[in-house]
Amino acid sequence: MELDQRKLQILRAIVDEYILSASPVGSKALSRGGMKWSSATIRNEMADLETLGYLAQPHTSAGRIPSEKAYRLYVDQMMQRAHLSDEESKLLYGYFREHVHGVDAVLRSTAKALSEITHYTAVVMMPDIGVNRLRHLQLIPLTIGKALAVVVTDAGVSQNTVIDIPEDIGPEELDRISKAITARFSDCRMSTVSSKLVRELGGELSARADFVESLLARLCESQSSDRRMVELSGATNMLEYPEYSDVNKAKTFLATVEQKDDMYRMLKKASNMEFTVTIGSENEQEGFQDCSVVTASYRVNGTPVGSFGVIGPTRMDYARVLSILKNVQTNLGTVLQSFLKEE
Amino acid sequence: MELDQRKLQILRAIVDEYILSASPVGSKALSRGGMKWSSATIRNEMADLETLGYLAQPHTSAGRIPSEKAYRLYVDQMMQRAHLSDEESKLLYGYFREHVHGVDAVLRSTAKALSEITHYTAVVMMPDIGVNRLRHLQLIPLTIGKALAVVVTDAGVSQNTVIDIPEDIGPEELDRISKAITARFSDCRMSTVSSKLVRELGGELSARADFVESLLARLCESQSSDRRMVELSGATNMLEYPEYSDVNKAKTFLATVEQKDDMYRMLKKASNMEFTVTIGSENEQEGFQDCSVVTASYRVNGTPVGSFGVIGPTRMDYARVLSILKNVQTNLGTVLQSFLKEE
DNA sequence: CTTTAGCACTCCGTTTGTTCGAGTGCTAAT
DNA sequence: ATTAGCACTCGAACAAACGGAGTGCTAAAG
To answer: Model confidence over B94-143: pLDDT tens digits?
Structure first.
């Protein structure tokens, strides 16, 4: 069933109001606040909207609050995108001017920027190294039997992994192996590096084929399990909102958000989409049943390599958040590109 | 003025009880709970203890709670060290068995272990790289004008820094410079590396003296300002305690604990001492006025290189925490030593 | 002189009652 | 179809009442 124009207007007014006040909005308040119908009319419509599932009543004789269905409709069709003030976008831009050393630093500062500007919680996933191309591999001796493997990709992302090495390999040989691998696999996608046949290689590498194979396998595996792949910022911002004035709710939220594996999975999944908005129970995470997650992906050279997002109460200011994400998305794109100026 | 035996016993009982219950303890409860004096006697003693500053009354006709002075006395003289059950120390040991790859990983898992076992908040500082000796420096090209500097010290700690490089340096030269620096400064303390005169060097390095100097300076400077130098775990544990059932208190605590710079400074300062116990207002941090911080230092080759600690409410179980820290200290010592088996 | 029983008093946390305001649904009039 | 009016409902906020745990003081007992 379609909602007529009036129902839509009323619904929108309710959502707008609720986003601001966080308390149930009633018919009188609405009609006083610039609606062109009387409270009674609005009341009737509200009753209809309730049976249609767009509104809910905490208890009889309270105002209505929007249901998730309402937010969905709001986000998909009714919301008009806010545009940031010059001030804000300048502020945002500032975050990207400052930390220009290294992709990691940029993404970390992105998380901080997002959480500080939105006042919600921000998560940023480090770029999925798998889709990038290897630029440099360096093995550095640590102790007998252990070395540090540093991988640098064409997107300028680096990653350290501690690996086991045969005890009879010396520093010079490690260096030669590093160079050989770099030469051989340079510009290969990381995800395909390990699957390529190592045996077919001649020279330096074939003598250590077993080791090299396990090394490459380890690199790919550790990449995905690294806890540091998600940057989190402003988790405690949520304590500002009445939704979380109950310590227990706050606790479950914080616990959820600290599950970096889950956060990573969530963002990874979202990185195929330009934007996503996931409302309340649409979230898979237990602890996000009362929140919404808005994400945007970021690209390098046209391919999406990661995403970032904002987590807030379901009544978050979607329009504003989306504008901010969009802004950050372009900023981020520019900055990341600048790391690749040599082509 | 000295406290007589009875006063001491009563005070100790009050502290013990308050640590458990978190609510003011009264004279009747005490005398019923195994004290050999009547409630009236205890009451008189309590009145004395209050005028002496060891106890405080939230309001007339409430029980007494220990003052900071009382905790101080308790920690310094009255507390008998708890000893961990076999189960617990085995559990603890398990944390160290698992993650044996890399100092960073070990310390991260230390933080986790501490917070999970104590149920308080744990902080661990990464070893102060300054007192360690350089083992390896590797420069890896990132883009034009930028490179990644990886430093490995004799304690097995690694550190990445993105640095600017002159645009005309190619990969091969970077590699040569890396090797030259490694050869020249190997086994020098990191803190002295930069102050050594670079100009006096011949060969490869002298041609790039300016660059090398700024590089070394950068390495030392970035080391101390790196936010990642502190590992935090279990910050949300504090929400379990009635002291933090007020969301605002929780918020200020969490905000404080997330100031990694401050945490680092705190731990750094404590790393000269085997153990420290800092109670309530003895803490410098604004947000720790209602907490206590207990720290222990850890050593490599006899020199203290860092410390770790537990933050809890002032009424935390000091005896237990200290035992755990002591246990962790030895475990950690063993593990870190194992990274140095080659001497 | 020290300890303890007894008593009056204090104060908090909780419960119970009351009021007030905002909101609702329904009906009848426009 | 809309709206004014009315009776009703419910929760938040405030106040009074109560019970319990604890105290300080005094006087008696050891």
So the answer is: 888 876 667 888 898 999 999 999 999 999 998 877 667 888 999 998 87
Computed over every residue of chain A, the mean pLDDT equals 88
d(CA B170, CA B141): 8
Q: Is the shortest CB-to-strand distance from A50 to strand C under 7 Å?
A: yes
Residue A340 and residue A303 in contact, taking contact as beta carbons nearer than 8 Å: no
Q: What are the structure tokens assigned to A299, written together? A: 């690209």
Please, which residues have CB within 8 angstroms of residue A4's CB and are 6 or more apart in sequence? none
As a three-state string, the secondary structure of B238-264 is HHHCHHHCCHHHHHHHHHHHCCHHHHH
- In three-state secondary structure terms, B161 is strand
- The separation between CA A15 and the C-alpha centre of its own chain, rounded to angstroms, equals 25
pLDDT of residue A21: 93
For B101, which of A158, A162, A255 is closest by C-beta distance? Answer: A162
Q: Does residue B180 reach within 7 angstroms of strand D, measured from its CB?
A: no
pLDDT band at A30 (very low <50, low <70, confident <90, very high): very high
Shortest distance between the Cα of A67 and any Cα of chain B, in A, equals 27
A140 contact residues in B (CB cutoff 8 A): 136, 138, 150, 152, 158
Name, in order, each residue with C-beta under 8 angstroms of A78's C-beta and a sequence gap of 6 or more: A8, A11, A12, A15
B196-221 pLDDT, tens digit per residue, is: 655 566 666 677 778 888 888 887 77
In angstroms, how far is D12 C1' from A24 CA?
A: 14
Q: Is the CB of B332 under 7 A from strand D?
A: no
